[in-house]
Amino acid sequence: MNKTIKSITHHAKKWWVGLLAVIAIALVLRLIGLDWDEGHYLHPDERFLVMVTTALSWPKTLLSYFDPQTSPLNPYNQNYSFFVYGRFPLIFTKFVATLVNLDSYSYLRFVGRPLSALFDTSVVLAIYFAVKKFLQHSPKKHKVALYGALMYAVFVLPIQQSHFYTTDTFVTAFFAWSITALIYNLWVPAGVLFGFAMASKINVVYGLPLILVMILLQVKKIGWQKAIYNLVIFLGTAYTTLRFADPYFFQSANLLLPFVNKQVLANIKELQASASREGFYPPGIQWQTKQFWFGLQNMFFFGIGPVFFLLATLSLSKLRRRFRFTHDNFIITAVVIWVAGMFLYQSFQIVNSMRYFFLLYPFFAVGAGYTLSLITSRRIRAGIFFIGFIWTAAFVHIYTVPHSRVTASVWMHHNFPDLSTFAWENWDDPLPLQLPNSTKTFRGIALDVFWPESKLKWETIAKKLEYSDYLVLSSNRAWGSIPTSPHYPVGKRYYELLFAGKLGYKKIAEFTSYPTLDFGIFSIKFPDDWSEEAFTVYDHPKVIVFQKEPNFTARQFILKLEQ
Q1: Phi, psi of 43 (to 5 degrees)
Q2: Which of 23, 201, 336, 511 could cysteine-pair with 543, CB 3.0–4.6 Å?
């Protein structure tokens, strides 16, 4: 008996040690290089959220907190008329930043980014406890749970999103924990967590069908009356939590009037209208010619990585046959259908960015972990993981070296004469950045390359280029999307001639920070220029610098474009 007890205790300790190791791995990968842009806020969404967060202030009374019309915590009351994010992450970050005296534009990243990393790391725990409970009758419960947690810990997109102060990690964490609470039949906590998820990002409402099915699948065990009671409890607590966590989502402070704020609805409609194949909204240009498989392609190669993605998909052929309990089979089927449905729905949207699939990543992690647990050979299992981890290690390298825009700015401050004039593209970050140790000043001129095509547009750009000394492309935001759009025939020719050195500007420098395996004496780089724009443009864009040639004239520029 004593030997049996010792064996069980040793077994349990082994898995707890393994879980702690996975958490440590997740934290290291997410916290390394958190000040990756050295305070320049080179992620535009993050920059906006920092501006809003620092502009918010605390209400003087509790009643004022709940009043969307007067609360100083409502962005709409702080001159931000367009706001499409959940407000709870901002309120919570504001609270923590106030406690640690870092509530300012210059320092808020030291609060927002660590919180983002910690919330995403918590998903590792949610996966472990959810799988362990779901497989409580299986001898492999610890192994599948641990490997599922490990997979999420090393997926690339969660690591990247953890380096940004945005709302995506908050909503994914709350959603994952809500599902975990449901598996444990904790209806009130599940509702509370889902309410916080909705207060972080409203698109989590797409997860509601899965949750409702999971509740209704309890009917056979507990009967219709109890199932409906649990459903009411879940929805009631979720609604109440949303009212407390994000009262500004609603039109009034009256709990009995669940009407959505009219300005919120107007903002959502405005956002949807901007994502059009016929429009000229700059961030949406890149999506005008993307096919439905673009999201799958980016998730496969970049967000998850080929090896881990294949492990996740291979689990589909194994999962259903492995579970003999009817109730478990139904839940697995519901999850697979929901994941597939969400994947297809988002794939066929005009904008199928990788981060819009973020809610699915914990489920892919479980699938990949399950497939890995089926491999009996430790050597093969370790080998497969090592090969898959190569992509993760290469990507994390970008946070261990200076940002490409910072490196380019240092070079420009060193090589550009004082008072030089440089042209930069509107809707992208102008370079060079201001550096604390440089006394040089430069004049920047914005090129409106995203304007609809017209003779006036290109004549204006030609005159600005004639006046400039340098042209700096700080990312592929314009040259990566404009040539792909049918609405920019001249723009396409412009970039073709520019990169061919035929427009009177010659390339003099290029700066990249590709995912890299660095072995000291040599390194292996993984160029990812062909990935989704948002994957590279924030934390490791390619910067290209051109210098005007002596014979450049606006007239010759126009003539070459018209040839």
Answers
A1: -100, 110
A2: 511
